[in-house]
Amino acid sequence: MHIAVRAEEIREQFLQELEGLPHDAHQIKLLKDKYLGRKGLVADLFSTLKDVPVKDKPNAGKILNELRQSLSIKFESYIKTLDSNGENMNHGDLTLPEDPYLIGGIHPLTHTLNEINSIFIKLGFSTVYGPEVDTDFFNFEALNIPKHHPARDMQDTFYVKDGVVLRTHTSNTQIHTMLKNDPPIKIIAPGRVFRNEDISVRSYCLFHQVEGLYIDKNVSFADLKGVLSHFAREMFGQNVKTRFRPSYFPFTEPSAEMDMSCFFCDQKGCNICKYEGWLEILGCGMVDPEVFKSVDYNPENWSGYAFGMGIERIAMLKYGVKDIRLFYEGDTRFLGQFV
Ligand SMILES: [Zn+2]
Asked: 272 CA distance to ligand 1 centroid (A)?
């Protein structure tokens, strides 16, 4: 048989036996003797060299040397995986930390929302949910934002088709609730909203809001201030101060934005509060009589307040998160910190 063919046979046979070799010192010695011993298969093949024609001898010698070398290297590296008892040590690096066993956790936005919910539920609010895809009527018209109203430009809208939008705020749930129920009403409506905004550290094409609505007889702006100031203290600490600035929303009149004292710097001024000592938290106001008219409530009999806040905004302040996109990327290095 040609030496090269036989050499290849021996190599394959050796590798096969090495792979199935029991971790037993005696068996290991037998294998070494069988292939690399003085009377082993390799030596055996070397002994046939004398029959090879002179002109082929150099090449055949080279093949045999390579065979002996490669088998020795394989065998030595196998031996290195064994400990002194011949046990296989090839378990990887035992000094490495064990694989992290990832357990699931509540997403920081869900956690923040749960906290917000529980504060308002204790005050007697119940939770309702509205549709994310809604008609122009619920998202705009009934909230006193008629077509061509400049307020529509405040919220870059995703249109599903003519007259149907991805809701731009959770305020649509106010209308659904009021059309289905008679007052008094005391609800919060959390959910996802969508706006066609450039994605950056501060804005994303979707985010989450909690809407609040309270309608009863003789509800005043003082009630609104009391409830929202209580919320801020429950959420961020009893030392938090609040202030209300006049603002504009089409569906409330008067409208305000609530700020709270910056707890990062104790109002001394920092880059988070833009050196003003105050942080914007939410928008609010007294329900506009036009909204009552669109759901057939008599504004002479009923009054109420509404408010809305971004859950991401609250979570970013609460946990010191600087990039809103982290909430949506599913990066376990970020999410794992909240487990
Ligand atoms: Zn500050």
From this structure: 5
- From ligand 1's centre to the CA of 318, what distance in Å? 13
pTM: 0.69
Token pair, residue 302, equals 């009923």
Give tens-digit pLDDT for 5-16.
Answer: 999 999 999 999
pLDDT in tens, 17-41: 988 887 777 888 888 899 999 989 9
How many whole angstroms separate alpha carbon 154 and alpha carbon 125? 29
Contact 42, 71 (CB under 8 A): yes
d(CA 255, CA 154): 16
Distance (Å) from CA 262 to ligand 1 centroid: 5
Instruction: Report the amino acid identity of residue 104.
Output: G
In angstroms, rounded to a whole number, what is the distance separating the alpha carbons of residues 34 and 41? Answer: 6
Within 10 Å of residue 11's Cβ, how many Cβ atoms?
17
What pLDDT, on the 0 to 100 scale, is given for residue 24? Answer: 75
Residue 82 has pLDDT above 80, yes or no: no
- The CA 308 to ligand 1 mean position distance, Å, reads 23
Separation of 246 CA from ligand 1 center, angstroms? 21
Rounded distance, CA 295 to CA 23, Å? Answer: 82
Tokens, residue 234: 């429950």
Instruction: Give residue 123's Cα distance to chain centre.
Output: 31
